[in-house]
Amino acid sequence: MLSEYIFWFLSFVAVFSAAGMIFSKNPVYSVLSLIVTFFAVAGHYFLLGAQFLAAVHIIVYAGAIMVLFLYVIMMLNLNKLEEEKKSLYIKSLSFFAGGVLMLVLIAVVRRTEELQTIQPAVYNADMGLTQHLGKVLYKEFLVPFELASVLFLSAMVGAVYLSKKELA
Amino acid sequence: MALTNRSKQVAVRELTFMERLYLPAIIKGMMITLSHIFKRTPTVKYPDQIREMAPVYRGQHVLKRDEAGAERCTACGLCAVACPAEAITMESAERKKGEENLYREEKYARIYEINMLRCIFCGLCEEACPKEAIFLTDRIVPSSFTRGEEIFGKDLLVEAMNERIDVSKRQRPEVLEFKKDKRHLHNLTYQDARPKTTAHH
Amino acid sequence: MDSMLIYKALLTVGVFAVSLGIAAYLTWGERKLAAILQDRVGPDRAGPFGLLQPLADGVKMLMKEEMIPTKANKWLFIFGPSFFMLTACMTGAVIPWGSGITVDGVVYPLQVTDINIGLLYLLGVVSIGVYGIMIGGWSSNNKYSLLGALRASSQMISYEVAMGLALIALTMITGTLSLGEISKQQDAGLANVVYQPLGFLIFIICAFAETNRAPFDLPESESELVGGYHTEYSSMKLGFFLFAEYINMFISSAVMATLYFGGYNFPFQHELGLEGNTLAIIQTSVLFIKIAIFIFVFMWVRWTLPRFRYDQLMNLGWKVLLPLAIANIFITGIVMWAMGKLN
């Protein structure tokens, strides 16, 4: 019962702050609202028993990435707010990309019902704990996991290459 | 052109591995600060604890009275002449009949002022005085809000009758002996004070 | 179960109160120790040995005029120090302050909550702690404050990485993220610092950087940034910033004592022949002695070493500590493999 109240509260906070992130004029407020959203989502992970995911979500997203976002935005000159005119081409492209993402989300939301009906049979309350997650990641999904890390490495190399102006 | 032989040739030298680790140097520095825990603090907690002054400390001046209570100063002006900061001014007056118990000599200082802002507390006035009238004491000159307050007149300088200031510590036998010595400048006339010319042909 | 809940609530309040009280006296201790290291007397006017100084400081802070700059962002200006204080106080929840006191057969643990992601909780709280400084510095609408805030954020992010990697090597040995579990393991075996000397060195350097203490006090370097992120702050809001630094110092000392120096355990504790509660009380005092030693080191370093330059700070974080931490993980892994502890 209590967890249901917490769920509704967190959902409300998440949706409200996500809307605030989009609608606020000041980019610093946008970033702060996004951080609140991350906290609400981390709370949801916690309710689902995925403690490790919740903690890492806070550490990585709220604690590191958003700090860097805030870092960059604080250095911007907020007095100049002249928006570039976007061409029709860009506009239609972004509309298309947003539409595709929305389709995916709708598809996922539609499937939640049937996913939930499968849950109780194989549900393991300790599945979200660090030990289990580690065993699954490093035994069953070792190759995809390492591939993902290689992907990150290549992204890092690319970023370093781009920042070295004399080379690029 | 080297004036002393203390100058050192310096060169930027590559740091060794141990030096680049920094940790030994940090530990060395921390040991130095640690050793200070066991050192005595030299602080004197002033209002609670007053540091003992040297017997010849040169603080606020006093104009002495003699045993009978008469002012010793005769306004000769030697102190004002000796003063390198020109902090002393005075005006003399003649002693009248019936004032013998007030002033020791026939001439006395009607006004005697020391500008404490100019005074450098060198003690030359004390040294110059032939009448043992002015002394520096171990009292500290109090601070004030205006410059005018720092010009001390006779009201502040002459010692009170019932609160005589003891300067006996300053009058050690060797000081008294020194004061008698006629070779010293303040006891001589101008002619005598001139350096003796010796034949150098 | 209900009595347990009430007990936990009381324990939370207790931990909170103790952290605040200790932090208050740390301000006195810092000034006194600085004085002793510099052959001075230090605060000695308020009460015997100046022991009432924190009280006088607190009253002074509260009575000062509250100033909010006209061009400052008012809500964020207030939010900054509040959040910094909040995150400083949150960390104490997962630290085991003792083994537990038994009353009427019920064991009351001296730990507010022993969540099994204790270490991650610590890292998470530390990583969001920087928001208090950043928001406070940005909302002041002052160049110095902004520079201080930017320095603080870049510094904390840089050193969090090395700190996290140092902790990974530790968790490889302990096999758990729960602080209570780590404390218990050190009762059975040796203190973790024996196995992780390099990890501890990295951790303590990062702890200095995370608490913004000298030699890593660039965010508030008074000589170049006036006061860094708290330049515009006055009254109790400034007090919160200064106070939270001491709470952080206390908590990170407790974390270091727990993770690397055996927590509340001490050598030969079971040979003393002491029973349950007496032993538990002694253990708690031992933990506090360990914390006091670490706090002394914090202060001792502050009054010895000069401040880093900004590029030196970044070099140390990214080019020295990070590779060292990764090397530490490799060495730990190889040694564990050689000893056949991997399965």
Question: Mind explaining what this structure looks like?
Answer:
- The complex is a heterotrimer of chains A (168), B (201) and C (343).
- Chain A is mainly α and 168 residues long.
- Helix content of chain A is 81%, strand content 0%.
- Chain A has three domains: 79 residues, NADH-ubiquinone/plastoquinone oxidoreductase chain 6, subunit NuoJ (Four Helix Bundle (Hemerythrin (Met), subunit A)); 36 residues; 43 residues.
- Chain A is built from six helices and no strands.
- In chain A, helix 2 packs antiparallel against helix 3.
- Chain A is globular.
- In chain A, 15% of the residues are buried.
- Chain B is an alpha+beta fold.
- Chain B has seven helices and five strands.
- With 343 residues, chain C is mostly helical.
- Helices cover 68% and strands 2% of the residues of chain C.
**Strand tally of chain B, please?**
5
CATH class of one domain in chain B: Alpha Beta
Class of the largest domain in chain A, according to the CATH hierarchy? Mainly Alpha
Radius of gyration of chain A: 20 Å
How many distinct helices of chain B? 7
What's the pLDDT, averaged over the residues of chain A? Answer: 82
Secondary structure category of chain A: mainly alpha
Sketch the topology of chain B as an H/E string, one letter per element.
HHEHEEHEEHHH
